Structure formats: C-alpha cells, structure tokens
Amino acid sequence: MKKLIITTISLLFVFTLVPCVAAEESGHDEPKATARSGEEVAKQCVACHAEDGNSIAPNFPRLAGQHADYMFHSLISYKNGDRKNAIMAGIVAALSEKEMKNVSEYYANMGGGLSVINIDDESSF
Ligand code: HEC
User: Which residue, among 73, 105, 76, 99, has the nearest Cα to 89 in the 3D structure?
Assistant: First the structure.
C-alpha cells in the first residue's frame, strides 16, 4: 500500500512537471519560429531589386542567381557597418541573421541574371 502511494505521488509529480518543461521549450524556440522565409522577406526587396530579382535600373544590383554566401556576407556587412549604404542599412536593420540567410538562399535559387564576361571573346569589349 505504501508503495502504491509513493508511486502515485511520484507520478503526479512527473505529470505536473512535464507541461512546465514543454512550455519552457516552446518559449525557447520562439525566435526561430518567427524568422520569416526567404520568399516572405523578399517582398520587401521587390520595389528596388524587382519581382524577379533582376532589376534593370543600374543603381539597384541584380540579386537573382547571386551566390547565397556572397549575398549573405553583403547583408551582414550592411548590418555591421563594414559596407555603408543608407538604404540597405535601413533594410537589414529589421532582418534577423536567419532571415538574411533565408532571403540569400531564396535569390540564389532564382533563375540567374548574373553573367560572366567571356574574356576570350573580344567582341564583348
Ligand atoms: C529602396 C530600395 C531598396 C530596397 C527596398 C532594397 N534594396 Fe538592396 N540595394 C539597394 C541599393 C541602392 C543597393 C546598392 C548599395 C551599394 O552601393 O552598396 C542595394 C544593394 C543590395 C545588395 C548588395 C548586392 C551586391 O551585389 O553587392 C544586396 C545583397 C541587397 N541589396 C539585398 C536586398 C534585400 C535582400 C532586400 C530586401 C530585404 C533589399 N536589398 C531591399 C536598394 C534597395
């Protein structure tokens, strides 16, 4: 009988604790859950960099097909001030690191607008 009481009490203890632990864990994960997807973040970029990431205005760099690593590094540089541009500094201020990564991958997977000049082809000069 004594054993049953002890078991019941310890079970009660476990079951009251579990929801607390679970609540704490989901609270901890919250920042990740709120990071927007690349597609979502890119909605903020279309005004300048165009819907398809291939802006035709020369002052807005093309992003479609850009390497994700390069683009992520550019965004980090705007954020920490290594690269100075008032417009882009304002844009990245509102983005988390995860969101910058997501949007970089999003553009990297878009049909590329980037091209490399063929140095063997003199007609391109
Ligand atoms: C209001 C216009 C505007 C908006 C909106 C904007 N950009 Fe830009 N972006 C620019 C300009 C201008 C530059 C060139 C800045 C420079 O000379 O460093 C630039 C440069 C960049 C570069 C560097 C490209 C390279 O080849 O080095 C990246 C990456 C970039 N933007 C990503 C984004 C992303 C991602 C968003 C949306 C979250 C965004 N931009 C929204 C105007 C804008």
Answer: 76
